[in-house]
Automatic annotation (TrEMBL):
InterPro entries: NAD(P)-bd_dom_sf, SDR_fam. The keyword Oxidoreductase applies. This is SDR family NAD(P)-dependent oxidoreductase. CDD domains: SDR_c. Belongs to the short-chain dehydrogenases/reductases (SDR) family. Keywords: Oxidoreductase. Pfam families: adh_short (PF00106). The keyword Oxidoreductase applies.
């Protein structure tokens, strides 16, 4: 059940079945990170319509169970079990996508890795940065470079599922995640006009905290307001159906304005907060 802050921050969104049917009827839709959370909810939201879903994730058993549910809803589905941390696996996915007889109509870039770790604990963990960068930046870049000709042929769409924090000031202990997500966001936005010239609509949704298993290991998030993944999926579907190229929470303007004007205050507060938390004298 939603808490009062969650009801205020994440009011229930709805989407017309007729509107969604019009947008996705007969389409081939690729979803990365499809086995859990937002990706799973999106796949189930689209099932029941005349669509061909291409689901990509690491866990083959979970993907197969999801595919069975989708097919029971009378939609077509293909699963591709692949570890997108590995470039060779990305290449294998690309070959499968290129072999689809009808090409691709919609590409939803959802796979991602979240990590929070203090700098002092990261000194011997360079792999945190390479793995996060691989999944949040390099893998989707390589997939979309390969998918662009397919999407151009079908005048398709790309949806980038991003995070609110890429629009805000950098936060302590989030260097690996925030840098990789921001890098992909900048790459994606740099290509918007060129994709548009090709007839491809590219859109980004900046989501707040979503209550998925990705945030479960962080104890701090247990009492934080978070959006249900079903609501995230509906908002993504609404963006897919709209002419807008961007979607953000209604309240995003407030932290964005604070980030624009408050860098000095934020950096001073972060410093004193960390000193106090770590038990150091100031």
């Amino acid at each position: 059940m939603k808490t009062l802050p969650e009801r205020l921050l994440f009011p229930n969104a709805r989407i017309s079945k007729e509107r969604l049917e019009k947008a996705i009827h007969g389409k081939t839709i690729v979803i990365t990170g499809a086995s859990y959370g937002i990706g799973e909810e999106l796949a189930m939201l689209f099932s029941g319509y005349n669509v061909h879903l291409i689901l990509i994730a690491r866990t083959e058993e979970k993907l197969q169970a999801l595919a069975n549910s989708i097919k029971a809803n009378k939609s077509k589905c293909i699963i591709i079990a692949a570890d997108l941390y590995q470039e060779s696996e990305v290449d294998r996915v690309i070959e499968k996508l290129k072999s689809l007889p009808g090409g691709i109509d919609i590409f939803i870039s959802n796979a991602g890795k979240s990590i929070t770790r203090p700098l002092a604990d990261s000194l011997n963990r360079y792999h945190d940065f390479t793995r996060t960068n691989s999944l949040n930046y390099l893998a989707p870049v390589k997939l979309l470079l390969a998918a662009t000709p397919l999407l151009k042929a079908n005048k398709g769409q790309i949806i980038n599922i991003s995070a609110m924090n890429v629009l805000l000031l950098p936060a302590p202990e989030w260097a690996a995640y925030q840098a990789s997500k921001t890098a992909f966001d900048q790459w994606f936005r740099s290509n918007l006009a060129e994709w548009r010239v090709m007839g491809i609509l590219a859109k980004t949704i900046y989501l707040p905290l979503v209550r998925t298993r990705m945030i479960a290991p962080n104890e701090n998030y247990k009492n934080y307001p978070a959006m249900p993944p079903q609501q995230a999926a509906i908002r993504i579907a609404r963006l897919l159906c709209s002419s807008s190229t961007c979607s953000k929470p209604w309240w995003a303007i407030f932290p964005q304005t604070g980030s624009f004007f408050g860098r000095y205050i934020w950096e001073k507060w972060s410093y004193y907060h960390l000193r106090k938390r770590n038990g150091d004298s100031i």
